[in-house]
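fyi for ur records
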Amino acid sequence: MSDLYDLNVTPVTDALPTFPYDFGPNPFVIDLNKAAQQNGNYRSTLWTGSQLQAVLMDIPVHELIGMEVHPDNDQMIRIEDGVGLIQFGADKFSFYDQYLAFQNYVIFVPAGTWHNIVNIGDRPLKISSIYAPPNYPWNTVQETKMSEPVSAGN
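which gave:
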């Protein structure tokens, strides 16, 4: 029984790395909520592997992502802080369902589904998003919605 307590374990600290930086494809442990709170970019890849990618987003008050579709990527979106209006649509110009999502809510978006997120709160909407397979190049950073994404890895 004493062997159980003799494990060689590296403690996880509250210290966060300087963003933006993509830590993939190496093994990595992080408090995802704290990382999302620290991210001030519209979009930053946090971890990119061969089959999966974690992305952080900061959506300003009363702004939106805009209707988008990922034909080949399933997506899981988690609200880390704020309030979002989630919309699903048949195409870029219409939606058929909408839901309110609060902190700790998760939204599952199958590949090929049009979707949008609107920040309807009074503070930035912080989200984390998981794509399978990856949707952006390694170490992609997009400072604002209107700026071009930049990848330090390419």
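Residues 32-38 form the longest helix (7 residues). thats all i got for now
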